[in-house]
Amino acid sequence: MAKKLLELPTVDERLQSIGIIMDGNGRWAKKRMLPRSAGHVAGAKIIQKILEDLRAMGVHHVTLYAFSTENWKRPKEEVDGLMELIYKYLDEVVIEKIKTDKDFSMCFLGDKSVLSEKLRSKCIEIENMAKNRPFVCNLALNYGGRDEIVHAVNAAIAEGCNPVTAEDISRHLYTANSPDPDLIIRTGGDLRVSNFLIWQGAYSELYVTDTLWPDFNREEIVKAVNEFYKRKRRFGALDPEDAGD
Ligand code: FPP
User: Fold this and answer.
1) From the alpha carbon of 214, which atom of ligand 1 is closest?
2) How far apart are CA 195 and CA 69, in angstroms?
3) Domain harbouring 79, CATH code
């Protein structure tokens, strides 16, 4: 008998924005004695399903860490393979999705100037096709949190801000149009943020699972969301019930 698909819970205004560090493709491939590239291909295949589930739950912004400013240090063959895979995903999946689904749009976070001409034009084409629809996927591509903050501070200075305030910086981040992530999920088990949304994630809840990205699925999403709702978010303040002590 076919396995019944787990029902999705609905989220509320407390969980509107999620960031995901998609890690573990290489280990997934190694476990199967496959080349790392096979792990990336398997990782790319599940992206759309995960986005659909998050959207069906009522999440409006999902930021995916696809390629960091540090990932250029990997062997050229792996970098070229990843870039080709990302291009293929954008060209074959995302363009079609934006055409057929009027609720879906995609933005890119990161410095596009060092991407290949072909990839850069695809990103720009996608951003110009649709903006700020009810569901926005931010794809972090050649993205680094430190690099983003430096870029934002310089943009604020160029605009004449003196002194530069936290609001000025937020306004110039690549994510200026998206709310800060309420939850950051990391697959692959490592307990670090790896330069991902370091400004925006200052008060995000972190959820780390040992599950490798290509194995991430609906059950895993539900676990992460249930865990989020168990957390008490205080944003540096006290719980109202403790405030009188
Ligand atoms: C790291 O796994 C994952 C990445 C380099 C980023 C995520 C990339 C994908 C999901 C594939 C393609 C992306 C798109 C948008 C189509 P790793 O190689 O660091 O894994 P490891 O820690 O097991 O070595």
Assistant:
1) 10
2) 9
3) 3.40.1180.10
